[in-house]
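Q&A FORM
Asked by: J.P.
Topic: structure of DUF2783 domain-containing protein

PROVIDED:
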Amino acid sequence: MASLNTAPNLSGHDDIYERLIGLHDGLSEGESLQAWSRLVLLLINHIGDRDVIDEAIRLAAPR
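REPLIED BY: S.T.
REPLY: Here is the structure written out as tokens.
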């Protein structure tokens, strides 16, 4: 069973952050939420491991 990797695992952090912020440029709040939802669903599909996805959802939930 795979587990969620929460250790830093990418380069270009600042560039990625800027791309995420840019994703919302010019969007209404509703459009912005739709873009986030599409991004999350695309990444979940890419991960494809139910246990890892469940762990990520658990860790992301408000405490």
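FOLLOW-UP: The chain has a mean pLDDT of 95.
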